Amino acid sequence: MINTTLVYIENNGQYLLLHRNKKENDLNEGKWIGVGGKFEPGETAVECMLREVYEETGLTITGYSQLGLIKFISDKWEDEDMYLFLATEYTGTLKKDCPEGTLCFVPKDKVLELPTWEGDKYFLKPLLEGAKNINLTLRYEGDKLAQVIEHPESAVIEKSMIIEAPHGFSTRLGGVSEEEFASLNLGLNRGDGPARVAENWRRFLYTCGIHSDRIVCGHQVHSNHIHIASAKDLMPPYEQNEPIEADGYVTNIPQVPLAVFTADCVPLLMEDKQAGVIAAVHSGWRSTAADIAKEAIRAMCSLGATVDNIDVAIGPAIDMCCFEVGSEVIDNMRSLLGYTHDSTPLWNAKENGKYMLDLRGVVRTRLLQLGIKEDHIETVGTCTLCTQGRYYSHRRAGVRRGSLASVIMLE
Q1: How buried is residue 22: exposed, middle or buried, by Cβ count under 10 Å (0-12/13-18/19+)?
Q2: Which pLDDT belongs to residue 372?
């Protein structure tokens, strides 16, 4: 599998095309295509696109959209993942002499009339019509297009009925990753390809109604630390060079998406609609025991939220049916909730000395103790371990697996 990019640059209703007419033994000889090429080692799709455009055209792209992934399957050439872009802003002067061919801006209504690969028209037509999510598999037998498979579905997500801000809890469905990462893996440090993770994030955020390629997230350490986020914390999810160490994020700034990762732990998305304050929280059993819910509410209130107005969506996590823990975990839960007895529906003792724990139930109970109104709490999704085809689970698969994410943003 090779990774490539292709970008169409638009200017006043015209699109920059490259007529491949200069290189010998050119696979694309005689065809009119966009600008692009193969990834260099360590490059992301965006970095490759920017470099290829500059090298071939002399232009520096300053405004662009990543539109999707086109998969090419061939009996003659290497299979290819091609990341598709539309660029609308740039600086510089167009090269007069490109070694790949002749560069030319073509009117929109003439683009589809020019000679190109048969399959290209299946993504060019929606691109020209303004589509923002274009995903195809094109199978070739030799030079002949043998099959077109459209993938119109977006990432599959869970949503809350009480949270109004753009948000979502991911599932493992609707992405481009393969094998143990299939298919919507959002974790970069799991061993998956960075370009695929970036495309998964694009699909996930697009489905959540968040039109951004930057988020606030970081290194989760199972603590109760909440970070007050601002625009300076934004970065692409695949470029966490100096990650924030925190298990929750709070902000009152619009267009700052907050995200946390899970694969059995409890994700919380929180919102005070009146005050315009949101939070995303990773609540594993250690963070739960450290009262991260209390710290999140405290941080939200420091930005103007009030407890009476906070809504909380509790996302997919491992449930009591599957979450076996030791007595030390139950001791922590008992201490958190102030329970002096063991007769509770939140955990059940087993004959082997272990317990089955309802961690989402503990989180909900603690939120109620902290003053969140009962009708302001919603539980979304099902058990991550039970529902193997829908979620990733650390307890089921170990470290070789994808990661789920939960995201929220103020408009």
Answers
A1: middle
A2: 98
Q: ∠396-402-408 over CA atoms, to 5°?
A: 115
| Tokens linked to 47 | 């970095």
DSSP 287-326: HHHTTHHHHHHHHHHHTT--GGGEEEEE--B--TTT-EE-
CA distances (Å), origin 45, targets 154, 215, 240: 20, 17, 16
Query: CA angle, corner 322, sides to 394 and 357, nearest 5?
Result: 105
Tokens in use for 122? 């299946």
pLDDT of 250 reads 98
Please check the confidence at residue 310 and state whether its pLDDT lies above 90: yes
Give the Cα separation of 163 and 309 in Å (integer): 12
- The answer to whether the CB of 204 falls within 8 A of the CB of 198 is no
- Position 241 scores a pLDDT of 66
How far, in Å, CA of 196 to CA of 69, rounded? Answer: 9
Amino acid at site 216: V
CA 337 – CA 327 distance, rounded (Å)? 15
Tens of pLDDT, residue by residue over 200-238, are: 999 999 999 998 889 999 999 999 999 999 999 999 887
Query: Which residue carries 């970095």 as its tokens?
Result: 47
Between 14 and 193, name the one with better pLDDT.
14
Residue 411 clears pLDDT 70, i.e. is over it: yes
